[in-house]
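User:
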Amino acid sequence: MGTVTDRARPARDWRIRLTGDAAVTLEFAPRIDPGINARVVAAAARVTAGRHRGVRDVVPGYHAVTVYFDPLRADAGRVWTALEEAVTTPAVEADASREVVIPVRYGGGEGPDLEEVAAFAGCSAAEVIRRHTATTYRVYMVGYLHGFAYLGIVDPRIAMPRRETPRLVVPAGSVGIAGRQTGVYPTAAPGGWRLIGRTAVRVFDALRHPPGLFGPGDRVRFEPAPPGAPTAGGMT
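Assistant: Predicted structure:
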């Protein structure tokens, strides 16, 4: 194990390090960057496809991927080597990504913070909606809640920070903004994102395969729901 620890140093524009006695992490520069995230997603997919003995989970994030393993069945050095090979081997991540379109009912009771975001941006609510729907967002990571996808990058003009005091309950299907990120709450949960609308699309369903609608690297577009579209009132 000493030889693995000794190798924990920056390499090119990435580094690999031990994160405890049962995980190894590949890290890039800590920023929201589509190019970095594409390399993270590609490396995670390559390690997953390798079906390495003793690997419990492969978790990609914004700028890093962590491989969790059973130390009784896997060797940290081999996991380290798998990550090294994954990051240095060219991969085409776009082939596996999908585009998902989410209809949203903006404003009113479905989006109680829309007017505040408009005031922050110095524009109309309609302009906030236009800017929010004009971008094709990247799924940078999935976490916090089952099926909660962190999407970016939000137009800087409407990138209002989180609320200082989070809500105790945010309804399922709520669409929010938190700085340069946007996302859809898959279930009712506490949260501090600025709520600008709500969708009737179930982004997480435990009975569906796969249960989550979004995966890292996917592309997501929002569009105003047409008049008469289903509401999200029955979601929990």
